[in-house]
Amino acid sequence: MAAIPPRRRTALFALFTTVVAAVLVVSGTPAFAADPEGGTKKLRANLTAAAKGYDQAKTKLAASKKRQTQLDATLKAAQGRVERLTKRVAAVANRSYQLGRMSTVMLLLNSSSPDSFVERVQGLDMLAQVDGSTLASYQEDIDTTKKAQVALAAEVNEQKRQLLVMERKKKQAEAALAEVGGGAAGGFIDASSPAAAAAPRNSDGSWPTESCTIDDPTSTGCITPRMLHAYQEARADSFTHYTVCWSQRSSGEHPKGRACDFSSNASTFKDAAATGSDKAYGDRLAAYFVKNADSLGVLYVIWYRQIWMPSTGWRAYSASGGPSVVHTNHVHLSMI
């Protein structure tokens, strides 16, 4: 087989490059998809594990505190009833002691008239009913108090466990971020950011398990319902610049439909760091996702060499590479 002349090889390579670029554009995958999000696959896996673990512990802690509040109310109500019934029980005991000195028959025989006899019979019957009800309620409230006290002690221990888990997951995130800086950072905060509508949660406050089942409006791929909700909320709040969510990559949340890249530019991903109005747009968008992180189910946000996670707040993210890798031309959002 004859060798291909150098000029022809160059022409073929140029054609191949053009075809690849065209495929990327048609598929809705940004030109920087080959390099996922900076750092390493291990870093992204550790960040995801740390963030999810922290969120789960935080959810369990909130549920435990809610149960503790309910138990506190139950305990106080039961203790109040016990206090009131203690006086009644003492009165019942005193009355039983006094009546015990005279037999019931003697009490009835001493009635001055038939009417008095009937009244005393009815009174004794009512007294027995009242005393029995009082003693039963008293015992029931004592049992309720004891159970509530035991349950409260269990909730306190549960909260201690979840706080330890949260601290451990925070350290895990900080250790992972040490690979790309990880130091304290100023972050992006905007008190005037609009409030996003909350995504659906389970009855216990946890996030439903979701998979890539919804058509991605930004590409030919798919995204999760929670990712779609966050995307739609952002657009409803005027963050409408060019965005790509799903893309085929070797790792990270994009191929799982759990991430979107929001360009700071209105129409494309520029191969340059955002400045001026584009930079201001990215600042506002990053702050928006952080403010609504709990409502939307945010895993982490990356923008302009910084990363935000629920456990750590804003930290330096100084991965080496072009604008896409260090996130100076787009805001990256990953969802739980």
From TrEMBL:
Residues 220-327 form the ARB-07466-like C-terminal domain. The keyword Signal applies. It comes from the Bacteria. Residues 1-33 form the signal peptide. Keywords: Coiled coil, Signal. Residues 68-95 form a coiled coil. The keyword Ubl conjugation does not apply. This is ARB-07466-like C-terminal domain-containing protein. It comes from Actinoplanes regularis.
